Amino acid sequence: MNNNYKSATTAGLLGIFLGSVGAHDWYLGNKNKGIIHVCLAASGVVLMLVADIILPMSLSLWTLAKIAWLFTILNGLSAIVMFGNSVWGLVEGIIILSQGDAGLARKGYMVAPSMNYNAGMQQNMNNMQNMGTNNMGNMQNMNGGMNNNMNGNFGNGANMNNQNNTNMNNGGN
After folding, report:
1. Diameter of the chain by CA atoms?
2. CA end-to-end span of the chain, whole Å?
3. Neighbours of 163 (CB within 10 A)
């Protein structure tokens, strides 16, 4: 497959599983949206590190007790940013999957030409039906020939019997 072709399945699954870092946007070439996803994920991680590691290590126990509310706020913001970013990526992934390759093509992405399996299957079915019809026609021709031969032979046999009967009748006279 050509590297320029994009797949809705690939983009959708990247959005569902790695949407928080914008993997689907990077795959589709949307660098700005990919950068936004990465920045949101990084800011969530930085807020969490500040609240849980940097501040407790740098402040005294007395100061930590006074600003305990700050840890809750920082951790809450971190969770909101990371959760919102993940949900955004998940929703985009589901939308991409539901629209399929046709949706990507409408947005201007180059998608691989789809193989129409139904058309190929229909052609195979038509070929099989034509083979069956031709074979049935051949069998009917064979039956017709056999019937003609059999009727001709029976007719000849009847004529032979008639001749024999005639000869016998003539010989008897």
Report:
1. 151
2. 97
3. 10
Burial class (CB in 10 A: 0-12, 13-18, 19+), 38: middle
Q: In this structure, which amino acid lies at residue 49?
A: L
Q: Which two tokens stand for residue 86?
A: 């993940």
Assess whether pLDDT exceeds 60 at residue 57. yes
Say how far apart CA 38 and CA 47 lie, in whole Å. 14
**What's 114's DSSP letter?**
P
∠ CA 44-48-73, nearest 5°, is 95
- The CA distance from 88 to 75, in Å, is 20
Burial class (CB in 10 A: 0-12, 13-18, 19+), 50: middle
Mean pLDDT of 72-80: 96
At 22 the three-state DSSP class reads coil
Q: Is 113 helix (H, G, I), strand (E, B) or coil?
A: coil
Is 0.90 topped by the overall pTM? no
Which of residues 57 and 173 earns the better pLDDT score? 57
| 111 DSSP 8-state letter | B
